[in-house]
Amino acid sequence: EVQLVESGGGLVQAGGSLRLSCTASGFEFDDYAMTWFRQAPGKEREGVSCISSDSGRTSYADSVKGRFTISRDNAKNTVYLQMNSLKPEDTAIYYCAASSNYCSAAPDYWGQGTQVTVSS
Predict the structure, then answer these.
(1) Where are the alpha helices (DSSP H) in 40-103?
(2) Residue 1 has what DSSP assignment?
(3) pLDDT digits over 2-23, tens only?
């Protein structure tokens, strides 16, 4: 059974930091690119950051560039999103997803999401 389990979300004040983790099982993690998406209330889901299977490529949405860092540890089947200098507009449910293609908008597998709330 394929599983992607996110953790690390929570409530933080503006300017604070959080690190999200997503641990995968049930598929060959190191064959897949990984993407973090987020969806705020009343808004469409957006891609936040993606990383290639070998960590050789990373990409970021303009809104998080310079503040968020994506990384992965293939030995632990885990992808991370380090979020610094958080803003209230970063409040959303954050999802990790696995895809055969880099930065795909239609991933093969999804996690259940973790809530991030940034207070002003």
Answers:
(1) none
(2) -
(3) 999 999 999 999 999 999 999 9
